[in-house]
Structures are given as structure tokens and as C-alpha cells.
Design brief:
alpha+beta, binds zinc ion, 18% strand, three-stranded antiparallel beta sheet, 6 strands, elongated
């Protein structure tokens, strides 16, 4: 672990404690070079299997990036998105598996997003149903934003097919 201040290549742990939810460990480290302290957070690895078969680490940033596009023009703040990504991560971690399909991650987004904003949910669901993976969702959402959203009829139809209720 590099020191974030001076980039020294070594540091030593001085303290650690498990987070309240038990899902991560916060570790205080000290750089022997510049003496400054910093915190690292360790979590069990969680991988997402893309449709191409490629594994990539689960990333809240990726969730936020995908959902943010569906939330364009909607009253959704960065805090809302951060909370949503946290809920998605908690939900998929609660499943207990170390590997998830991108499809499952998309599913895990739908519920919290629907509670957050119905319109954003419909947009996300329609694109999600068409492409079934976050990997593709990025591109599709860009297209939708640039060339006008899908028609209302298409969105309703898609939502009806994807909704879990
Ligand atoms: Zn340092």
C-alpha cells in the first residue's frame, strides 16, 4: 500500500477495527518515510462476471455511472446516488457469493432505484431489459440521452416486463 502523501512504497498498520456492519475493516496505517497516517478500508472481494466472461471487481462508481444517466433531469442528488450504490452493494453482498453476473447486479439496482425515482427506474429498466448488462447499459444510455429517450409506450411496456412485483 503506497503512502498517499509521499508515495513511499511501504507502510505499517497501527490500528484496525471492523466496521459496524461487519462487512469491512478500517485500518490505520502510518508511513515510515513521512510519518503521516491514513486509513484504508478492506472488504471481501466481490467480482462481477460480464457477459463476455470477463471478471471485474464490483464497483459502486460503476453503479453510479450507469444509474446517473437514467436520472438525467430528475431530482436525484449525488448523495441519493451514493446511497443507492451502497444499498445495491449491501444487497448483493448479503447474497454471500463472491461472484455475480452483471445481470444480477442490474436486478439489484431496480428495486432501490424504483424507490428513488419512478421515471429514472423506467428508463433504466427499459435499457436494462434490452441489454441485460451494465456493460452494455453504459453505451445504450449514452445513445438514449443523445438521441432522445425511448417513447413512453416502450418504457411502460419494458417496465411491465421487468418489474418484480
Ligand atoms: Zn509518506
Amino acid at each position: 500500500m503506497h503512502c498517499p502523501f509521499c508515495r513511499h512504497g511501504d507502510s505499517r498498520g497501527v490500528d484496525s477495527r471492523t466496521s459496524d456492519d461487519g462487512a469491512s475493516i478500517r485500518r490505520r496505517r502510518q508511513c515510515p518515510e513521512c510519518g503521516r497516517r491514513f486509513t484504508t478500508i478492506e472488504t471481501a472481494s466481490l467480482s462481477v462476471v460480464k457477459r463476455s466472461g470477463v471478471l471485474e471487481p464490483f464497483s459502486r462508481e460503476k453503479i453510479i455511472a450507469g444509474v446517473r444517466k437514467a436520472c438525467q433531469g430528475r431530482p436525484v442528488s449525488d448523495d441519493d446516488l451514493a446511497m443507492l450504490a451502497q444499498r445495491v452493494e449491501e444487497n448483493v453482498r448479503a447474497g454471500g457469493s463472491a461472484e455475480l453476473d452483471a445481470y444480477e447486479v442490474g436486478l439489484a439496482i431496480l428495486g432501490p432505484l424504483r424507490e428513488l425515482d419512478e421515471v429514472a427506474y423506467l428508463r433504466f429498466a427499459s435499457v436494462y431489459q434490452a441489454f441485460s448488462s451494465l456493460e452494455d447499459f453504459d453505451d445504450a444510455a449514452v445513445l438514449a440521452a443523445g438521441e432522445g429517450p425511448a417513447s413512453t409506450a416502450a418504457e411502460s411496456e419494458a417496465a411491465g416486463g421487468v418489474g418484480r412485483t
